[in-house]
Amino acid sequence: MRRKVLGVTLAVLATVAASLAGAGAANAAPPPKAPIPNSTPGWLSHATKAGPANGAVSARVYLAPAGGMDALAAVASAVSTPGSAQYREFLTASQYHATFDASAATVAAVTGWLQGAGLKTTVDPSHRYVDVTGGVGNANKAFGVTISTYSHDGLTVHAPDGAASTPDSLAGSVIAVDGLDTTPSFVDPQTQKPAPPDGGFRNAPTCGTTYGSANPDNLATPDGTVLPQLDGKTLPYSPCGYTGPQLRNAYEAGLTGGLDGTGVTVAITDAYASPTIEADANKYATDTGDKPFTAGQFSQNLPNAYTNVNSNKSNHQCGMAGWYGEETLDVEAVHAMAPGANIRYYAGKSCMDPDLLDTFTRINDENVANIVTNSWGGTGDVVKPALFLAYQAAFLQGAAQGISYVFSSGDNGDEATRLATPQTDYPASDPYVTAVGGTSTAITAAGLTGETGWQTSKYVLKDGAWTLSTSFLYGGGGGYSSNIAEPQYQKDAGIISPNGGRAVPDVSMDGDPTTGMLVGQTQTFTGKAAYDTYRIGGTSLASPLFAGITALKIQASGAGFGLLNPLIYSTHGQGFTDVTGAGIDAGAIRVDFVNGLDASGGYVYSVRTFNGATTTQTVGPGWDTETGWGSARAGWVQ
Fold first, then answer.
1. Residue 197's domain is classified under what CATH number?
2. Longest distance between any two alpha carbons in the chain, whole Å
């Protein structure tokens, strides 16, 4: 896909130049110290201090873009906003680095400060950050803190007693520091697979090939169990899992011009890399009526080694095998929606924030991707506050270069069940990414015939009746951020945020695991590796589905779009189908193997409702907190 390249645009470069000129003036009268943003540990108020820390410190100091974050945001906004004179006139990677890499003078000043405190430094070639190592005393001296040992939330960590700072002469030069607080910061896949993350799983065979095609009136249960009605209605069995042809028939019906994503590159990020991914995706495509990848159509960018590979998060581990299912879903969902698109997979060396953040550096600097789908996130508004601006710098670089970042909005609804108060999840709540929420979706032979927001309650069979077991089981993330301001493009579209926070999601696609996608993956069954299929969902499905259909839009237009949100909101969701809840039942019946593998352990029956859980989120006309502007259709593409 050929990119449009930025010409010298006086308005944008003038903004950068003004910011650069103002830097010296700002530094002329700085405060006594320059606090590093978001560097105070958020858990300090409920931690127990155990005494001074000893030993070594390993940290990363992230540098501000030249001219500052506001100058970079101005460029990203100008090239991404319809009606701007610079709309879609994107920077190349080399132009970005020439304009926004921290200057040699800034790097020299930062390394001089750190080395003066006795720390060893290693500078990133693109001047994004400086890695530092040394003793606790050296770090205390450099950052103006006292690093102590603390206990909190079942962890024992080293962390500073307050905000870290730089010398006043470096005010604004550092946007983040990671590593002074050793509390591990993990992200999780936004998938819902009904099995242990490292174990194999198979669907029980009692399910429909399409939505509503199987129900207790026309398909008996495998063990003769009589299933009652729910509120006087016979519910269908859940679909077995939608395939690529079914998903395209649902979302892409009416497309003209043979669009399939050819010439577009979709990037995918996750932790680790499945050793069988290409073979699995090819077998799945062939078995479900699609074409496998052509030579070179699928590629990977992998780190030299992986860390934190086990499944014990209390011991700072991530669970390598558990991420393989996430990657499988992402790759197969994108290929299903855009069979002609190139897919380039970027693996993080672990599930920790800095390692996933590193994937964005590789994506932006390679500059071959047009859109990036990310099906992972943290719990609550900020994954780790210390890295907030570092994440934003990566998203803004991508937007400036014409790369669109999309994120799953999360699988815990408004998070009130887990966190006691409604919250959105980060990075989906960042204003410089597109947040993709989840729907419960009825796909029949006629296409997509019903859709509602995904918020699930669970009923179990007890004494011959359906009995409420879990009032909120899972659902698409959404609501209003508690600490990230509502962006201007949402205000301009008339979105009223009750707390002034960023509204989530922006759009939505099928995410409910009860109406999820059938995927094929090599899994471990009783100690042996074997390929099999199963149904999976979560907003981890919604994000790659949206990235895939947007790849067709990029193909049709001949170039990327950068940040998609100004376009989506300026048209009030034109090309998206408003989700109203019509054409779908109250829920569906799930039939599962008790052991997740076969009939030897018997069967378990449940009802999973569609939009049946009570949360602060709603489905309504226009934009709403469950589905955003709705789900993408052919009108979004053309």
1. 3.40.50.200
2. 81
Mean pLDDT by 10 residues, the chain (638 residues): 38 38 36 84 92 94 97 98 98 98 98 98 97 97 96 93 96 96 87 62 94 96 96 97 98 94 98 97 98 98 94 75 93 98 97 95 98 92 82 98 98 92 94 98 97 97 95 96 96 97 98 97 90 95 98 97 98 96 95 92 96 92 97 96
Q: Which CA distances in Å does 529 have to 171, 521, 543?
A: 55, 10, 28
In this structure, the answer to whether residues 281 and 137 fall within a common structural domain is no
Same domain for 526 and 605, yes or no, is: yes
State the Cα torsion 328-331-334-339 to the nearest 10°: -120
pLDDT at residue 9 in the model:
38
Q: Residue 213: inside a domain, yes or no?
A: no
Whether 199 is covered by a domain: the verdict is yes
* Number of residues written out for the chain: 638
- Count of domains observed in the chain: 3
SS (H, E, C) 167-218: CHHHCCCEEEEECCCCCCCECEECCECCCCCCCCCCCCCCCECCCCCCCCCC
> Are 162 and 113 members of one domain?
yes
Query: Residue 115's domain spans which residues?
Result: 33-64+106-183
8 Å CB contact between 548 and 333: yes
Q: Give pLDDT tens digits for 134-160.
A: 999 999 999 999 999 999 988 999 999
One domain, residues 582 and 613: yes
Query: Can you list the alpha helix ranges (DSSP code H) found in 502-608?
Result: 539-557, 565-570
Residue 95 lies in a domain: yes
